[in-house]
């Protein structure tokens, strides 16, 4: 076939060209060097024109895969975000419920605290009232006992008053076979020891001599039942006929007898501030009823005199 002959001729010619090129001869070349350069550049352009499309295709495919992956990731993230928002809404709802419950509990606690404070206040008021009533009850009991004691004392004084009317002057009390005068009246002012003795002497007696246990018990009990409770015990003393004016620490009665039986309070006599006169006080223990005091100090006093008509 002609096609086959031309093909063989082309091949033979191409081989010849190759051989000539390899042999380095320049005579009668089928192509000049310029033509060969054009053929080489044409082939390079043809190859390079195909490689960029393939690379672009690969890049686009990779980008498409990346976009698909990103799209899928965004979809998953959106779904998760949507589910998270719902979860957050649920959490907010639960927190709101808990806050409402907490606020309600706080209000209940405040109400309970107010109620407790009211009940505690009422309890405190009742406690105070109970203490007040208890104190009043004790005061009433003490008053009852005091009145009973006064009644008993008055009853015991009835025979003495009867005897006093017969054996003593008006206003005097018959006690232990002697007549005694006690200036319990508030109209009679307190006096010094010497003024008190002069008062007794003008009435025919002298300051009292308390030289027996029976006398100190009876006299202390009598002045104790008539003393002023609003005044201190030292302002409720009564002068008796006892002094150491003549000789310090040698206590004598008005008739000159030296003291033998004494009823001094603990630590007495102590002779503070020149205390040379004796007084008896309304103490609970009648055997500790005496104190020494300055003779110019003003106190009540007790007079004593012999009774009359002892037959």
From TrEMBL:
The chain crosses the membrane at residues 53-78. It comes from Pleuronectes platessa (European plaice). This is C-type lectin domain-containing protein. The lineage of its organism: Eukaryota, Metazoa, Chordata, Craniata, Vertebrata. Residues 175-304 form the C-type lectin domain. Keywords: Coiled coil, Disulfide bond, Lectin, Membrane, Transmembrane, Transmembrane helix. SUPFAM superfamilies: C-type lectin-like (SSF56436). Gene3D superfamilies: Mannose-Binding Protein A, subunit A. CDD domains: CLECT_DC-SIGN_like. It holds the Pfam family Lectin_C. Residues 123-157 form a coiled coil.
């Amino acid at each position: 076939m002609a096609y086959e002959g031309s093909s063989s001729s082309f091949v033979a010619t191409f081989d010849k060209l190759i051989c000539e090129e390899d042999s380095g001869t320049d005579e009668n070349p089928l192509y000049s060097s310029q033509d060969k350069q054009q053929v080489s550049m044409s082939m390079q352009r043809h190859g390079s024109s195909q490689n960029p499309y393939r690379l672009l295709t690969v890049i686009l495919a990779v980008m498409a895969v990346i976009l698909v992956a990103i799209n899928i990731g965004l979809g998953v993230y959106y779904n998760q975000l949507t589910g998270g928002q719902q979860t957050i809404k649920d959490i907010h709802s639960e927190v709101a419920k808990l806050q409402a419950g907490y606020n309600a509990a706080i209000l209940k606690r405040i109400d309970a605290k107010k109620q407790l404070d009211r009940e505690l206040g009422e309890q405190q008021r009742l406690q105070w009232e109970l203490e007040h009533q208890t104190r009043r009850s004790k005061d009433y009991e003490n008053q009852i006992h005091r009145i009973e004691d006064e009644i008993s004392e008055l009853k015991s004084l009835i025979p003495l008053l009867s005897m006093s009317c017969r054996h003593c002057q008006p206003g005097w009390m018959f006690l232990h076979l002697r007549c005694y005068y006690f200036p319990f009246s508030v109209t009679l002012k307190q006096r010094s020891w010497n003024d008190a003795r002069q008062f007794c002497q003008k009435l025919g007696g002298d300051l009292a001599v308390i030289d027996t246990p029976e006398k100190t018990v009876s006299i202390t009990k009598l002045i104790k039942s008539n003393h002023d409770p609003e005044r201190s015990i030292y302002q409720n003393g009564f002068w008796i006929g006892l002094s150491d004016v003549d000789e310090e620490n040698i206590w004598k009665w008005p008739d000159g007898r030296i003291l033998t039986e004494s009823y001094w309070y603990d630590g007495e006599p102590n002779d503070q501030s020149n205390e040379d006169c004796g007084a008896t006080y309304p103490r609970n223990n009648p055997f500790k009823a005496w104190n020494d005091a300055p003779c110019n100090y003003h106190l009540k006093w007790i007079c004593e005199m012999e009774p009359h008509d002892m037959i």
